[in-house]
Design goal:
By secondary structure, this protein is α+β, with helices and mostly antiparallel strands. An 8-stranded mixed beta sheet has the order 31-32-34-33-35-36-37-38, with helices on both faces. A hairpin with a 6-residue loop joins strand 9 and strand 10. The longest helix has 20 residues. It binds the ligand CC(=O)N[C@@H](C)C(=O)N[C@@H](C)C(=O)O. Ligand LAAZK34X binds next to loops.
Length: about 675
């Protein structure tokens, strides 16, 4: 069967949907769809409208070479979005992200706000014309004019240097500073004319990094997580409220045992749903729970405290009787409603899919969400909140056909813990014709294989005849706190033995050829692939992407050192570091790393590569030949994002697997110039 997964060109050209917003009346849904640009070297995002009634086909709302994103409705139905598209009233000008407004009544989008530091995101109040935009300002700027002048001077001088006094200095793939995120109130967004900005937290420093403002329905206050530096390079996240009339900032929740971030405000404005993340230590694994914070000053009340899942709050029911949440659960992330009076939890959606971007209709009967699973990429659905019946709405794109089947399989860990996996089987797999297989290990490590991903698509490998096992070992979410606790600080133990148990179950199947199995993982999954390499030779090949290699080197050089140092004592780093077992590695390895990866810095990949060649049981020969390979991306980060590089990633992985697992030679992508 030919599907889009038969060809890398067809695969990278599949449209990718994300995000969903609902207007106040519950009559309009808007989502974003990324498609390949004509040169096929970038994705371009456009906004699409999806009919909540399911009667009309989806229709494209925006169209520009620059693309659009960040959709948010104003109470009058106008749609705000961000774009770097050119200002129609200026013949030239720099490309920077600006705020645009598309009138509800139809017509052209108009430019609402442009600023030197760009517009990052936009939040709107449900019932008032109050808009808060996020944007970058130079740390020393006194106001917008000053910021523009300082930026110009910096640019003209060609200076890129940044002087730091705090931690971190980089984040994922971005250098931090001298710009810092700020929140600005934008006046009268629904009206024409000028829209003066008011800097709501001028002394934010790095406090608003990675935070998102949440507005109350009346637009009187915003709530946000705020990062506070601590001694010794540590930090915590506190919950703050900013009064939008007075700009007064109040710290609502702050302690050294937890990090806090805001969920939505109740429809009557009396309660804020709060996510509490327990501060970890060598002995204490993370734990996520919910609080309801009375906004009149009362003490926070735990919500559904006994529920052994980690909820992400999405929306309130309009009468305030329930909080709609999603939570990882046994290889999915269903929608649940938590009764706010009793804390009882009701599962709403029943399929094995992962839901996000949930919003609720004004009558409280219906929810809309983005849903995906390993069978289909993200799509917009309507959910009947009483029955859980879920309907796929007419979407901007059809579901791509997948070349095989999906099964849920179970193994048993050494301590008797059930270890559950998804298994992708290619067409034709049978006892008469057993297929080669791949063990894929997820990153995080706190996470789950429960949603479609474009970066690790098992169907591309299924189209080439491989089965792909996607296990959730110790440290995975959706199986209760115990599953996380049992792997905490001991990565080489339960996570490893769970993966081996899952592999045992895999190779015991008649439709799997147990002699032709490889292991692959990215980030923490790459750590695990490296650990596997030094502890077993049962795999024919290992692919390790953006992987942690020497823990004592990784922990202080990643962009979030405080996080890992809390979990790993120096002793735990020694006990669990893959580099100390390089001398045992006798499996061909494909190392992949991006130079702009600041989460797992390139030093991990460089050291792994040298130590493989110099100290493994398969060292490089004196003529330089080696079974190992290093695929290096000078301009990619923790993820390989450019479509042309995604094609190279999959192409090289497939050739390496073919050579080492199947004993077949494949042509490498010609763009490699080899
Ligand atoms: C703070 C932190 O590093 N969090 C993790 C989500 C993370 O980034 N893990 C990496 C190493 C991964 O993706 O596995």
């Amino acid at each position: 069967m030919t599907t889009p997964f038969s060809s890398l060109d067809d695969f990278v050209a599949l449209p990718r949907l994300s995000g969903l917003v609902l207007n106040r009346e519950g009559t309009r849904l808007v989502t974003s769809v990324a498609t390949l640009d004509p040169r096929k070297t970038a994705y371009r995002t456009a906004l699409w409208e999806v009919d909540p009634t399911g009667e009309q086909p989806a229709r494209r709302l925006t169209r520009s070479a620059a693309g659009e994103s960040g959709a948010a409705f104003l109470p009058n139905g106008d749609l705000l979005f961000t774009s770097t598209r050119p200002d129609p009233d200026e013949s030239e000008g720099e490309k920077r992200s600006a705020l645009w407004r598309l009138p509800a009544a139809g017509g052209e989008a108009s430019l609402l706000l442009t600023r030197e530091g760009g517009v990052g995101g936009v939040a709107t109040a449900e019932a008032a014309d109050v808009v808060v935009v996020t944007g970058d300002s130079l740390a020393g700027s006194a106001n917008e004019e000053d910021d523009a002048e300082r930026r110009k001077a910096r640019k003209e001088s060609g200076v890129a240097a940044i002087l730091h006094t705090g931690y971190p200095v980089r984040y994922w793939d971005a250098d931090l500073g001298p710009g810092e995120p700020r929140y600005f109130a934008l006046k009268d967004a629904a009206a024409d004319g000028d829209h003066p900005l008011e800097d709501l937290v001028p002394s934010a420093r790095g406090g608003l990094r990675d935070a998102h403002p949440v507005l109350d329905p009346e637009g009187s206050a915003l709530f946000t997580a705020f990062t506070v530096p601590e001694e010794r390079g540590s930090q915590r996240t506190v919950l703050v409220r900013v009064d939008l009339a007075t700009r007064e900032l109040a710290v609502l929740l702050d302690d050294r045992e937890n990090d806090y971030s805001p969920g939505p405000v109740s429809p009557d404005g009396r309660f804020l749903a709060v996510v509490r993340n327990r501060r970890t230590s060598a002995d204490l694994a993370p734990r996520t729970s919910l609080l309801l914070l009375p906004l009149d000053g009362g003490a926070p009340v735990p919500l559904a405290e006994d529920w052994d899942r980690w909820p992400a709050p999405a929306a309130w029911l309009p009468d305030g009787s329930g909080l709609v949440v999603t939570a990882d659960d046994d290889g999915g992330a269903p929608v649940f409603v938590i009764d706010t009076a009793t804390g009882s939890v009701r599962r709403v959606t029943q399929d094995a899919a992962a839901y996000s971007d949930v919003s609720v209709s004004p009558d409280g009967a219906t929810a809309y969400a983005v849903r995906s699973s390993y069978l289909f990429p993200a799509e917009v659905v309507r959910i009947d909140l009483a029955s859980g019946t879920t309907v796929r709405l007419p979407n901007p794109a059809e579901r791509p056909e997948v070349p095989g089947t999906l099964e849920r399989v179970e193994s048993v860990g050494e301590d008797g813990q059930p270890v559950r996996s998804w298994l992708v089987l290619p067409e034709g797999a049978s006892a008469a014709s057993p297929v080669p297989a791949l063990l894929w290990i997820h990153g995080g490590p706190i996470g789950s294989w429960n949603a479609w991903t474009w970066r690790w698509s098992p169907w591309l490998l299924a189209a080439r005849g491989y089965a792909v096992l996607l296990p959730d070992p110790a440290l995975s979410t959706g199986y209760g706190q115990h599953m996380v606790d049992r792997g905490w600080g001991a990565w080489g133990q339960a996570p490893y033995t769970d993966l081996m148990a899952a592999t045992d179950t895999l190779v015991a199947r008649e439709d799997i050829d147990g002699a032709r199995v490889a292991a692959m993982g990215g980030s923490f999954g790459g750590y695990m692939a490296n650990w596997i390499a030094g502890h077993t030779d049962r795999f024919a090949a290992i692919v390790t992407h953006a992987s942690l290699w020497a823990l004592d080197q990784f922990a202080p050089t990643t962009d979030a050192a405080y996080y890992w140092q809390r979990e790993m004592t120096p002793e735990a780093m020694r006990e669990n570091s893959p580099h100390l077992h390089v001398g045992e590695i006798r499996t061909p390895m494909l190392v992949i790393h991006g130079d702009k990866d600041y989460r797992v810095p390139i030093g991990e990949g460089l050291r792994l590569w040298y130590e493989l060649l110099s100290a493994s049981k398969l060292p490089a020969d004196d003529d330089g030949s080696t079974p190992h390979r290093f695929l290096y991306f000078p301009d990619e980060n923790h993820w390989i994002l450019k479509p042309q590089h995604a094609r190279i990633w999959y192409g090289v992985v497939e050739a390496f697997l073919a050579s080492n697992v199947l004993g077949e030679e494949r042509e490498l992508p010609p763009e490699l110039g080899l």
